[in-house]
C-alpha cells in the first residue's frame, strides 16, 4: 500500500511517500481503508522531533476516517464495512480512569499516529475500540476533521473548569486546537478573547464565537486586561508554550486558572511566582482527551452545534505541502488529505 512515512526528523520535505506492507489485524484490531486523514500540529511536531520523539519510521495521522475492511479474531465480524473515524487516544479500556471515560489519565496512554502508525496511508490498523462509528450525517472529510482537536479542547476546558459567563483567553486561535476551543467555549456561554496570528482571520474567529480578537505579541496581556476592564481573564487556554507563557500568566485575573495542553514552541518558560501566590493562580496540566470528551464533541459536530472549519483538501501525495501550510501559521481551519 502507499503511505507517507516519517523516516528521519526534519523539514516537511523529509516526509516520504513509500510502498509498505498492508497491515493485518491483531486479534483485537480492525484494518480501516482510509478515505481521509486530518493534518494536525501533532504530526508536524512528530516530524520535526522538536517536542516528541517516537521510534522511526512512523506513519503519522491521528485523525482519519474510512471503512473497516478486516476484523481480528475477537472483533465482531459484522463491523466489516462500517464507516468509522479514529478515536485519537490509545488506552487500556478497563482501568478506573478508562471506565470513567478519562482515558487520558490511563497508565497505558498513547496516541494513534505516534505510538502506532496512523492514517497517512491507504490502510491503517487500530484497536477495534479506536474505530468509532461515523454518523451518517458526516462524510469522510468531516469525519477526519475534528476528533483530536475538538476532544482535546473539550478536555482542556473541562480541566480548566470554564463556566458560562466567565472570560477565557484562547492562544493560537487560528490553529486547529485554538479554533476548536473558540467554538466550544463560545457554545458554553463564555466570553472568548481569541489570540490570532494575523488580522486576516479576525472575521472568521468572530463568526466562530470570539467576542474580541487580539494579535499575538508582547502587548497581548495588556490588551486583554484592557478588554476586561483591568481585571484579566478567568481562564487562559494555553498550548503554545514557551513563546507565550509569561504573557498568559500576566493576563490572568485574581483566582485565575491556566490550563496547559501543549507546548508547540518549547517546554521551558519563566513563571512569575509572585503573581501565582498574590493572585491565587492555578496552573493545570491536561494531556489528550478521554472518551467522554470525544462523545461530547461527536454529538455537537453531528448536530452541527459546532462546525469544524475545513480550509483545504489535498491528496495524500501532497502531505509535505500540507505540513508547510500548517507551519506557515496563518492558516485557519483544517487541512485534510484524501486517500
Ligand atoms: Zn486505562
Describe what is shown at a glance.
With 339 residues, the chain is α/β, with parallel strands linked by helices. The protein has two domains: 2-148 and 289-338, Alpha-Beta Complex (Quinone Oxidoreductase, Chain A, domain 1), CATH 3.90.180; 161-285, Medium-chain alcohol dehydrogenases, catalytic domain (Quinone Oxidoreductase, Chain A, domain 1, Alpha-Beta Complex). Helix content is 26%, strand content 26%.
Topology:
Blueprint: E1 2-5, E2 16-19, E3 29-39, H1 41-48, E4 63-71, E5 83-86, E6 89-90, H2 96-99, E7 110-111, E8 123-127, E9 131-133, H3 140-143, H4 147-159, E10 167-170, H5 176-187, E11 191-196, H6 202-208, E12 212-215, H7 220-227, E13 233-238, H8 245-250, E14 252-260, H9 273-278, E15 282-285, H10 291-302, E16 310-315, H11 319-327, E17 334-338
Parallel strand pairs: 10-11, 10-13, 11-12, 13-14, 14-15, 16-17
Antiparallel strand pairs: 1-2, 3-4, 3-8, 3-17, 4-5, 5-9, 6-7
Helix pairs in contact: 4-5, 4-10
This protein binds zinc ion.
Protein name: Enoyl reductase (ER) domain-containing protein
Domain Enoyl reductase (ER): 10-337
InterPro entries: ADH-like_C, ADH-like_N, ER, GroES-like_sf, NAD(P)-bd_dom_sf
